[in-house]
Structure formats: C-alpha cells, structure tokens
Design brief:
mainly beta; seven-stranded antiparallel sheet; 1 helix; 249 residues
C-alpha cells in the first residue's frame, strides 16, 4: 500500500491513556471476532470489534493485529487528492440520533488521520494555539455513508450536501459540504486497541443497535466536491461481509 508512514516516535501518535488488556474488544462477550491475516498491514488487520453502553456513554472498541494508530497517511501537500486513513464502526442507527437529517444513509463513527487538512476547527488537538493544523493526529468523526457511483462502481462515499440545500447537521458540523460531524471525542490507544467513548442525548435509542468494524482508506476527490470524500480501499471488515452482526449491549 502507498502513502503510509510509520512514525518513529509512537508516543506522538498513541496518546490519551491506556486500557487494561481485559477490556480490549477481543476479550469482550459478543465481540465480532476476525481471524488474523498476515498479508494485511498489521495496524489495520482487525481481530475484533465491540461496542458497549454504560448509561449515556457508548464505547466503540477495535483490536488490531498490530499497534493501533501506528500507520498514518503520507501527505501529498494539497486538499485535492489528500489521503485519509480510518478506523470505522458502521451502525444501524439513524443519522438523526446524532443530529443529521434522518434517513440519509449509514451512520458510522470513525477515527481518522489526514495530514493535508484539518476538519476539526473547534479543537486544538496538539495544543499549539492553532486549531487548523491538527489533521495528522487521530481524531473522531460521525459520518453518513452512501453508495456513490462517482467514487467508482459499488463504492461508498461520505454523503454530499447538494448546493442550495440545508439539511439538518449536528451543532459541531465543521462546515464542509458533506455529512460529517467533528464532535471532539479523542481516540484512546493501548497497543493493539483503539477505543472511542461518545455520549448520546438519547441513550435508549442506542440500545440493541447493530454495528460492524472496518479499516479503510479514503481520498478527497480531485474536484473537492460532488463527491468530496470517497472510500478508496477497504483493508478489513470485522464480520467479513459488512452484515453488522454486533449488537450494542
């Protein structure tokens, strides 16, 4: 695979604390378990995905065959064509649960890294006083995915906002013309594990929802809109076929 870098100082990448090994996704009852595949980049080879709820807090876990978050995109120096790497949890939740226009596609939580642009304008992840230079650091998004033929036959993309329309968006929508939210939840890394904990205003709406785990690459389209962001590679799917067999317990 191209456009990857392996940072020499993993402490820069793997921030935010640690979880006990017994809390890793692969050790959780009901986790979606996936066999290791040595042909894949280890940090994107899924061994397990798991989501659980504690009141209004829902934690999304993924256990990898290597160090989670260790592989990041190599910058290309421009927004057009910019690469994105991601850990993704597609769900059966309606997009309206987090503030998007309802019935508009697949609601997915993602942790992403993309050095060529910053799409979290409300947050200064590296604490340097500039909130616009943090794209390389792993951060969270809610996105709405839809089949997008302009991304390729059978490909998915992040749903575009057509010009002249004003669909409902979450309060922390970063202003891009796509269905994306930048809620500011920090991914936590612990060796092979990545975990993201997010609050829900209506936790009862989450109970029993289905989920899966995916590792993937995306790319900003050369024309930067319609479509803006396409899924270009799927490295691994926890279920093997994106059937969303997990249930939030």
């Amino acid at each position: 695979m191209k456009h990857f870098i392996l940072p020499s100082a993993l402490a820069v990448v793997l921030t935010g604390g640690a979880y006990a090994a017994e809390n890793h996704a692969i050790n959780q009852p009901g986790a979606i378990v996936s066999a290791a595949d040595e042909a894949r980049v280890a940090s994107f080879d899924i061994l397990a995905a798991h989501v659980h709820r504690d009141g209004a807090q829902v934690t999304f876990h993924m256990t990898l065959n290597g160090v989670a978050g260790a592989t990041q995109p190599e910058p290309v120096g421009a927004l057009a064509g910019a690469p994105v790497l991601s850990y993704v949890w597609p769900t059966s939740l309606d997009p309206s649960v987090v503030g998007f226009e309802g019935g508009t596609g697949i609601l997915a939580l993602a942790a992403t890294s993309h050095p060529d642009f910053d799409d979290t304008p409300l947050y200064d992840e590296n604490n340097d006083g500039d909130p616009g230079n943090d794209g390389l650091l792993w951060h969270s998004h809610w996105v709405v995915l839809t089949p997008t033929e302009a991304c390729g036959a059978g490909a998915l993309g992040v749903r575009d906002i057509p010009e002249g329309t004003t669909p409902a968006m979450p309060a922390t929508w970063p202003g891009l013309p796509i269905f994306i939210d930048s809620p500011g939840h920090t991914p936590q890394f612990d060796g092979p594990e990545i975990a993201l904990t997010v609050p829900f205003a209506d936790p009862d709406a989450v109970a029993g929802a289905a989920y899966d785990g995916v590792t993937s690459a995306l790319r900003v389209n050369e024309n930067i809109h319609a479509p803006l962001l396409c899924v270009t590679d799927v490295f691994d799917i926890a279920s093997g076929d994106l059937t969303l067999p997990g249930k939030i317990n």
